[in-house]
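PROTEIN DESIGN WORKSHEET
SECTION A - STRUCTURE
LENGTH: 356
TOKENS:
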């Protein structure tokens, strides 16, 4: 008998089939059809919302990537949208978070987005907000030890790390959240690092990278000396936001061209083959790893449509591969325009991929 919700027994998921086999059958249905599956019965609805179901889809290699886009309005309102790569022109407006924090850090682990700190009414906060993309529901998580604004964050080894963004001196300049125990632990850090303020972060080759205004830092939890400086080539070439795909960190340079940083070679290489189809990203472009594709989001040429209150954005999925000569070549898999019903003056704050 299936039992996924409140502990009370319910009927089998599929008559004349054992539940373990039924679950594997249901798990293979595309995520876009899950809203219809939830109407079959209470047990199916409970199954679709269970963490074990999401874990099974991930283990089977059939979890699908979606993009969560956070747009900040001029009145500090936080609007979140879900973008489906299989239905690229129809964004889904998500519920607003409980706390309208400005300057939060953001990281994702599976289907959950962690929104860390940020300023509330002009004061940095210790608040942690969780968004479950399966249930499309916000909740409050365990508070951080230090109030933060514009911190660096990343998911590594099943934990959420947050670095900087707090006033020095702070023993909790860096700390880590274990979602299983819902507890933060302080990550010891050298005092001379604690005055750095972060403006970019990424996870690359088992390390958390954080770019600061005066030299970036790297944290490697497996190293004997976990803290260090990012390589000079990486520090000088990282502009704006970044994303890691296939072990390469992608950003854009001062000429607006997309480049990839290879940690092993310690060098940047321009992504060739996309110059004619993409604009120059001098600022404002957002990058994410969307199921192995380099996903770019930027404001469209007609940013504000005449006579309407819709913001036009464009997003593209790019497959990047290494050439025989060691270079990087990209091919655009798809590119679409999307209209968002937000006030004039809004801007993209976060772009985070989740698995559902």
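SECTION B - SEQUENCE
RESIDUE ASSIGNMENT:
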């Amino acid at each position: 008998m299936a039992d996924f919700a409140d502990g009370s027994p319910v009927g089998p998921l599929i008559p004349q089939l054992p539940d373990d086999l039924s679950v594997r059958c249901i798990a293979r249905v595309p995520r876009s059809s899950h809203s219809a599956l939830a109407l079959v019965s209470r047990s199916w609805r409970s199954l679709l919302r269970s963490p074990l179901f999401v874990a099974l889809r991930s283990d089977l290699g059939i979890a699908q990537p979606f993009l969560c886009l956070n747009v900040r309005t001029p009145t500090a309102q936080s609007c979140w949208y879900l973008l489906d790569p299989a239905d690229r022109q129809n964004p889904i407006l998500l519920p607003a978070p409980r706390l309208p924090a400005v300057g939060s850090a953001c990281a994702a682990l599976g289907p959950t987005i962690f929104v860390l700190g940020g300023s509330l009414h002009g004061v940095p906060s210790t608040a942690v907000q969780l968004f479950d993309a399966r249930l499309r529901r916000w909740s409050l998580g365990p508070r951080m030890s230090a109030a933060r604004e514009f911190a660096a964050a990343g998911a590594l080894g099943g934990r959420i790390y947050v670095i900087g963004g707090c006033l020095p001196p702070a023993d909790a300049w860096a700390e880590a959240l274990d979602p299983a125990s819902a507890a933060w632990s302080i990550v010891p850090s050298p005092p001379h690092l604690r005055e750095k303020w972060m403006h970019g972060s990424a996870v690359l080759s088992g390390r958390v990278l954080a770019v600061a205004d005066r030299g970036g830092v790297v944290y490697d939890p497996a190293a004997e000396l976990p803290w260090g400086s990012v390589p000079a080539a990486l520090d000088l070439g990282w502009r704006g936001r970044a994303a890691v795909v296939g072990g390469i960190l992608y950003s854009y340079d001062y000429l607006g061209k997309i480049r990839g940083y290879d940690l092993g070679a310690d060098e940047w290489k321009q992504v060739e083959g996309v110059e004619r189809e993409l604009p120059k990203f001098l600022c404002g472009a957002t990058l994410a790893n969307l199921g192995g594709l380099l996903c770019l989001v930027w404001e469209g040429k007609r940013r504000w449509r005449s006579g309407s209150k819709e913001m036009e954005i464009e997003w593209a999925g790019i497959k990047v591969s290494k050439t025989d000569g060691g270079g990087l070549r990209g091919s655009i898999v798809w590119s679409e325009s999307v209209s968002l019903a937000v006030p004039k003056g809004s801007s993209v704050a976060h772009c985070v991929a989740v698995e559902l």
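SECTION C - NOTES
The chain is about 10% helix and 45% strand.
The CA atoms of residues 203 and 209 lie 6 Å apart.
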